[in-house]
Structure formats: structure tokens, C-alpha cells
Amino acid sequence: MSSTTGQVIRCKAAVAWEAGRPLVIEEVEVAPPQKMEVRLKILFTSLCHTDLYFWEAKAQNSVFPRILGHEAAGIVESVGEGVTELAPGDHVLPVFTGECKQCAHCKSEESNMCTLLRINTERGVMLNDEQSRFSINGKPIYHFVGTSTFSEYTVVHVGCLAKINPLAPLDKVCILSCGISTGLGATLNVAKPTKGSSVAVFGLGAVGLAAAEGARLAGASRIIGVDLNSSRFEEAKKFGVSEFVNPKDYNKPVQEVIAEMTDGGVDRSVECTGNINAMISAFECVHDGWGVAVLVGVPHKDAVFKTHPMNVLNERTLKGTFFGNYKPRSDLPSVVEMYMNKELQLEKFITHEVPFAEINKAFDLMLKGEGLRCIIRMD
Amino acid sequence: MSATAGQVIRCKAAVAWEAGKPLVIEEVEVEPPQKMEVRLKILFTSLCHTDVCFWEAKGQTALFPRIYGHEAGGIVESVGEGVTDLQPGDHVLPVFTGECKECHHCKSSESNMCSLLRINTDRGVMISDGKTRFSKNGQPIYHFLGTSTFSEYTVTHVGCVAKINPAAPLDKVCLLSCGIATGLGATLNVAKPTKGSTVAIFGLGAVGLAAAEGARISGASRIIGVDLNANRFNEAKKFGVTEFVNPKDYDKPVQQVIAEMTDGGVDRSLECTGNVNLMISAFECVHDGWGVAVLVGVPNKDDAFKTHPINLLNERTLKGTFFGNYKPRSDIPSVVEKYMNKELELDKFITHQVSFSEINKAFDLMLGGQGLRCIIHMEN
């Protein structure tokens, strides 16, 4: 039991007061965890594009003031009623989507889209009582995707926490609680390239490079990186990318370019931009007979995926993934182990580091398209 | 060696002289098989919708006169140079798509779309010399899909012939050389429903019912049949279909109707009509997280498959199949065995029988939307 158990904690949090305005480090009050909840001390967090998107809140129902952040690692401070799987001192990764272990999705071998705890970007309160655990002078500050990790302490549903190896360096494995797992799992769990196969990865940001890393681990013989930004190519080599295609360099559709490079098409493709045209290209560039395309990046809400039915009838498979098809509680600990046994490399994703007080620098870097992951140190 | 080996055979064939006109039984000459070809005596054949589509030749390059037919069972009469896998007397099913066993597709464990011998609806001649083996009074008559089974004798590439159990009744298993295998394989090889799962089948013609049969064999707990023609529902019960949805009965999209019936969506769906809107419905009616939709029916015009990307990102899978993903030579013999050991039922697909001279009745039945399969007996 920690000395703060059952009490309100006063700590620092980076509060987004308005859409698009720099976060402000404020002193907030964090209420104790209620039933099936856990209060965590966050040690390291990182910025993911999804935080940026909802912070900018363009054309969405904005919820402000809000504490963003969902890629992080921390230690359990105290647990609420009914929580048996976690205890104070446990090392955990909070995840923006959960696993209740009871619903049809959790019981399915395939799905990770828990009926109770799946990602909800609109909700800014806890499920138990539909209230926020954060406040400033009695005024609620809203949660974000059930994690709100831009705070020294946060409260999360127990189903949204992965208990991990306490030896794992939290400043590295924090990036597994979103983007890197999303890309890695898209390849390892969904595309499943066989040894020696060819893979095309669309989008060479952190998620795409994680997908490429997955293809490298799977023993792909060719990993073709597709990006409109040629300056990403050099970095991508560290992740196993062997060839590069910039669609801007060609007069024909990129799926044609890739098909010509690969005698009819790649064995697997993984689409990590969310651009609808790239999604269609990613599907149409896989080989007929056996090709599988996996969509990862999330498009804007009016996008329409369109293809000629013959492309499907010619035995191409089209799949989509969410969080790399990893079940957060059941599967993430083993991904941490892949890092611990040196199968998976994470350091190369971390290009910057800032202290919590300078969290807005992480936003600046991402807005400028610089770097891959910036670790924010809470202490 | 048969008595006719190496010689031209004169026999009867049902020739299509013009698009959409009744076939005429003619005496034709059938050349001996050349390199890698075999000449077959066809004993039974059946009409498949694809024959009708190309015979009608609406909006397609017309190639006439032509001998249609691609669903059949026969016996090898003679083989050409280089053929070692087959010999006279072998019982076979000719298939409209082949398996050379050498190309990447044939070597892949997944694909059945042989680079050399995959379906070609435009070609009316044999690959080895670009000529036809059929003629009448010196006038060439074109092949169809490399099979041309509406003839007492035909010549096919050896890669397009499946050698089967000689004890199998050819008047039943001839159906496995196209439609029934297509639907069955779509379910067993591609959709792969697990025991107790829920399956939706769009289109309750022969292919859809074969897909339903596959779901029945797999132990699906619910098989929901979707068809605009309520008359098909009764027949469909014989194939394991447990519930019926007629999209015309509802104001909302059929995928919504199905999702409501199944607590969020079916585990597997198979689309067996070729209608693009139904393809979209078949995809959108499977459950998020684990649902798989398989497209089987071929569209007859240029159209686009469209869906909101979130339907894919929510972990639905979209697949397409061709000939049920069966490799003709490697896999079809085992499908015949499924029939022989009574796992698979075929008799219920056969609703009509006619003699070869009455082959046009089979067309009438299909054009009238009647029945499932009509067996054409080549011998009286």
C-alpha cells in the first residue's frame, strides 16, 4: 500500500485548455481509483499522432479541457475495489483500448476489439460513474481514450493495463503501448509474411517503420518502402527497408510500379498512412493468387475504399487491423519480452527526448514531421 | 490404344452459330490431340450460367460458330505427344481452368490461377498451334474455355483435365467440374467456417447452394440464405439453409438486417450472385473483429466495390475466390472422393435430365430461372 492510497493526489499534468493551443503544466487533483480502476504513476510517455489529431480537434466534437497522452509506461500506485490482477508497484503499460476478458471479442482468438473497453475517442470520463478523476479547483478535466498519460498520475480501467516484466526499461517499452505495436502486429499477426517473401510498406513514419521491423523479423527478402517524402528513406534502412518508391517520381499509379518491380505484385502490403488512395494502391499492388493487403492507417471519415471486384475475385485478400490485433493484457507482455530477448529493436524508434516541462516541443517536432518518437520524461 | 487414335473423329456436337440462337446438333470433325493435349469422349455435361453468358454475347466480342460447355464428365479416348499423366480409358472431369504444375501459381499452396492455363474466355483455339480441333466441312468451329463439352468428343489441354475415381458415377460428379466445386470450395477452402459458426449466403442458385452445402458440412449452426426470389427458399432447406432473408422485404440495407439477426454480424459470408451491391452487403454483414466475407460471383459489368475503410479497420476480412480455390488436377479428385464417401451430396443439385438432342431445353430452363442443374446425356 502506498502512502497516498485512498487519497486525492496533487500532481502536475499537461492540460490542453483549447484545441490547438500549447499544453499548460498545471497542478491537478487526481481522485483515487474506483471499482475496477487503477491509479498509476506515469514515468515516461510519448506523443502519438492520434494525440495530435484530437488536440487539433478539427471538425470533431471537442472535449476540453483535456489531458491527452496514451503511449506511456508507469508503476501502479494503488488499485480500486475488485482489482486482483494488479498490485501497487507493478510495472504497466496503459493502453488506449482494453480487454475485459469476458465479452465475445475478448473470448475470440482473433479479435482485440473488446465490447466494453474498445477505443472511445469521445468519452472523457470513467465508465464506472461517468465522471472524471481529474480536476482543478473542483472543475473537471477530461480523460482521453481512457489513459490521459500526460500527467504524473492517472486513473485507468484495470482492463486497459498490461502488466509487464519489471526489468524492462520503461523509457523504451512505453512506445509499445501504441504506435510501435500497431505497426509490428499488423505485420506479425495479420499480414504474416513468410520467410523470403516480399512486402510493401506504405508510409514510413513510426507505425510504418514498425511494420517494416515486423517484416524484417519475419525474414522478408524484400521490404519496399513507399513514401512521398524521400528524406525518410535513409532512416528506413535501419528498419530493414531494402527499396524505396516515391509515387511522385512516376506518371503511373504506384501499384503498377510495384507490380512491375515484383513480377506481378508483392506477397504482402501494409498501409500505414490512412490516405485513401494509398489504401487502394496497397490493395492493388499485391500479387493475385495469394497476396494479402493489411490496412492500418485511419482515414478521414468521408473516405471511400473503392476497387474493381475482379481484384478481389483474383484471390487477393484485404484485411484491416486495429492495434496490430494485439489483445492488450494478454499479448503486450510478450511483445515486451521480444524486446528483452533482443529479437525486437526499439531504441532506433526514439529520436528525441524532453522533460515533462517541455512537452510542447514534442508537439512541435511532430507538426514539423521531424523524428519518429520523442520520449517525455515525467520526473 | 483406342481404334480411333490418331484419326479424325466424326461425331455430334451442339454448335452455336450465332449469339443467342438455339444450338444446332451438327456432325463435326474432331482432330486428334496434339502435344500435351487429350481427346475425350464426353458422357455427361451440364449447363452453367457462364455458358449462357457467353452464348448471349451481350457486349462481348462474339466468337462464332462455337461449341460451348465446360461442366462435364468423360473418358479419355487418346492422348497426344508428351502426355504421361493420362491414358485411354481414364475417367476424367475437364475443367475450364488448368494446372500446369510448373508456374508460380501452381507451385503456391494457395493459388489455383495457373499462369499458362487459367481461364481465358476470349480464346477459341488450342494453345499449341493457335488453331481449333473442331471443324465442319473445313470451316473451323471455335473452342470455349478450353473444354467445349457440348460435343460427343472434345480436345483439351492435359493440364485442364482431372483424373478421377473410375467408380464415381459420371452423371453426378460432372457437376464438380465447375459450379458445385466453385461454391463448395469457396466455403471449405476460403471462408472456412468453424463448427457452430454463422454463415450468410447471397444467391441461392447452384453455386450459392453449393456454398451452403459446404457450410452444412463444416457444421455451421446457422446458414442464412439471401435471395430476391422467395421461391428459392424451400429448395434451399435441403442444403442446410436455416433462415431466409429477402432484401425486398425490408426498408433498410440487408447487411443491417443480417447484423440485427446475428448480434452484430455473421462469422462468414459468401456472395454468389455477382451483383456488386450484394458484394458490398456481403462484406458489411460480417461481424467486426473476426468476420470474413468471400466473393464468388463474377460481375457482368464494370462496377466498383466500395466500402467505408472503417469496415476493414474494424478487423473484417475480404477475400475473393476463383473455382473455389481448387487446383483442378491436384484437388478435384479428392472432392469426388467426398461424394463417394457420402460426405458431400450431389444428387440434390440435379433437378432435370435431357438427352443431347434436346440440349436447348437446358438453356430454356436456365433462362426461365428454373431448376438447379440439368444433366445432358450424350448417349441415348
UniProtKB/TrEMBL annotation, chain A:
Its cofactor is Zn(2+). Coiled coil: none annotated. Its EC number is 1.1.1.1. It catalyses: a primary alcohol + NAD(+) = an aldehyde + NADH + H(+); a secondary alcohol + NAD(+) = a ketone + NADH + H(+). Transmembrane segments: none annotated. GO terms for biological process: formaldehyde catabolic process. InterPro entries: ADH-like_C (IPR013149), ADH-like_N (IPR013154), ADH_Zn_CS (IPR002328), GroES-like_sf (IPR011032), NAD(P)-bd_dom_sf (IPR036291). It is found in: Cytoplasm. It holds the Pfam family ADH_zinc_N. Residues 36-164 form the Alcohol dehydrogenase-like N-terminal domain. SUPFAM superfamilies: GroES-like (SSF50129), NAD(P)-binding Rossmann-fold domains (SSF51735). Its main location: cytoplasm. GO terms for cellular component: cytosol. Keywords: Cytoplasm, Metal-binding, NAD, Oxidoreductase, Zinc. The keyword Zinc applies. GO terms for molecular function: alcohol dehydrogenase (NAD+) activity; S-(hydroxymethyl)glutathione dehydrogenase [NAD(P)+] activity; zinc ion binding. Residues 206-338 form the Alcohol dehydrogenase-like C-terminal domain. Belongs to the zinc-containing alcohol dehydrogenase family. This is alcohol dehydrogenase. It comes from Fraxinus pennsylvanica. The lineage of its organism: Eukaryota, Viridiplantae, Streptophyta, Embryophyta, Tracheophyta.
From TrEMBL, chain B:
It comes from the Eukaryota. Its cofactor is Zn(2+). Its EC number is 1.1.1.1. It is found in: Cytoplasm. Residues 36-164 form the Alcohol dehydrogenase-like N-terminal domain. InterPro entries: ADH-like_C, ADH-like_N, ADH_Zn_CS, GroES-like_sf, NAD(P)-bd_dom_sf. PROSITE patterns: ADH_ZINC (PS00059). GO terms for molecular function: alcohol dehydrogenase (NAD+) activity; S-(hydroxymethyl)glutathione dehydrogenase [NAD(P)+] activity; zinc ion binding. Pfam families: ADH_N, ADH_zinc_N. One of its GO terms (biological process) is formaldehyde catabolic process. Residues 206-337 form the Alcohol dehydrogenase-like C-terminal domain. It is an enzyme of class 1 (oxidoreductase). One of its GO terms (cellular component) is cytosol. SUPFAM superfamilies: GroES-like, NAD(P)-binding Rossmann-fold domains. Keywords: Cytoplasm, Metal-binding, NAD, Oxidoreductase, Zinc. Gene3D superfamilies: Medium-chain alcohol dehydrogenases, catalytic domain (3.90.180.10), NAD(P)-binding Rossmann-like Domain (3.40.50.720). It catalyses: a primary alcohol + NAD(+) = an aldehyde + NADH + H(+); a secondary alcohol + NAD(+) = a ketone + NADH + H(+). Belongs to the zinc-containing alcohol dehydrogenase family. Homodimer. This is Alcohol dehydrogenase 1.
